[in-house]
Specification:
Blueprint: H1 2-28, H2 37-55, H3 63-96
Length: 104
């Protein structure tokens, strides 16, 4: 049981790093439209870590591959959140009649 908890915490840390990596990439590419960086970073770190901790347990692979899978899950979480933000932004801009570039 203790080993499972340790593995979950390691997976959570790797997933959070995946979220941070995707956030930094998006920030450097100037993909964020407003200045709510701290909120977005928090969602991507916590969400990536929590999702990776649970989803990575579904895979029975060696530890080094498990760490990579956890990191990839964190990256995918942050990418999915970014896509959802872009879609919502486009819907809101269409509703209020603004034309925007689709960045968020």
């Amino acid at each position: 049981m203790e080993a499972l908890i340790q593995l979950s915490l390691i997976a959570m840390a790797c997933g959070a790093m995946g979220g941070v990596t995707t956030f930094i990439y998006s920030f450097k590419k100037n993909l964020y439209k407003n200045n709510k960086y701290l909120q977005k970073l928090t969602i991507e770190i916590l969400g990536g870590g929590i999702v990776a901790a649970f989803v990575s347990q579904l895979f029975t692979v060696p530890l080094n591959i498990h760490l990579f899978v956890s990191f990839a899950i964190g990256c995918c979480w942050a990418g999915l959140i970014h896509l959802i933000r872009v879609k919502i932004t486009k819907l809101v801009e269409a509703a209020i009649g603004e034309s925007g570039g689709g960045k968020m």
